[in-house]
C-alpha cells in the first residue's frame, strides 16, 4: 500500500522546480516597504491587506493582479471543524514517519498522504473549499501535508504537469508565513533558476503572507505560476517584524487538473 502511494507521490508532488533556500535573503536582512497611503480608489485596490507584506520593487499593476490571485480567508474553519478534520487524519498520519533525510527535497520534515473519501462533516468543509476556490472542478484526491515544527517547505513552483491553475490550502494547528518570490518561468531547470536568481537579484520582488491557523489561502494564476512559494522555517517566521510562533502545521490542500 505504501509503495503504491509513494509512486503516486513522486509523480505528482516531487516534480517541483526548486530555488535553493540559501540564495534567498534571510528574513532579518529584508527591507520592509513602507505602509501604503492611498488617495483614490485605484490605489486603495492595491493597498496591502492585513495578511500581506510586499518587498522589493513591484510594478504597480502586478501588485493588483497578485492581490486578486493570492487570497487569504481568515477563520475559514472554526475550532470544532479543525478538530473534526484532525480526528479523521491524525490516526493515519501517526503511522507515518516524518521525512528529514533528503535536504534536496522541496519539503523537509514532513509526512503526507492523499485522501479521496472523507467523513460527511469534513466533506462539507472541502465542498466549501471547492465552491470558494474552484469552479466546481477540483481533483478528487485531497493532499494532507503534516509539517513538523522544525519542517520547512522550500521555494518551489508546483509541477505544471500535475497541477492546474489553482491551489487552495487550509492551515491547521499553527500560524505560519508563506513567502512568494517572483520568478521568471515555471519551466526552468534548477540550474537556470539559480543563475537567473543571482543575475536578477537587484530587481527581485516578493510578498510575505501570514497564514493564520484555520485560514484558507487560494493561490492561482499569476501567484501560482509566476512566483515560487515556500513556508519559512520556524526561526525565520517573521511577519511585520513579529516572530510568528510556528509549531507543527497540517495543511489540507486542494488542486485542480492542468
Ligand atoms: C506543496 C505546498 C503548501 C502548504 O505541498 O506543494 O506548497 O500550504 N504546500 O502546505
Ligand atoms: Mn507547493
Automatic annotation (TrEMBL):
Family annotation (InterPro entries): AlkB-like_sf (IPR037151), ALKBH7-like (IPR032870)
Recorded GO CC terms: mitochondrial matrix
Secretion signal span: 1-29
Gene3D superfamilies per the UniProt record, alphabetical: Alpha-ketoglutarate-dependent dioxygenase AlkB-like (2.60.120.590)
Keywords carried by this UniProt record: Signal
Coiled coil: none
Superkingdom field: Eukaryota
Biological processes, Gene Ontology terms: DNA damage response; fatty acid metabolic process
Required cofactor names: Fe(2+)
PANTHER family per the UniProt record, alphabetical: ALPHA-KETOGLUTARATE-DEPENDENT DIOXYGENASE ALKB HOMOLOG 7, MITOCHONDRIAL, SPERMATOGENESIS ASSOCIATED 11-RELATED
Protein name (database record): 2OG-FeII_Oxy_2 domain-containing protein
Annotated source species: Anopheles coluzzii
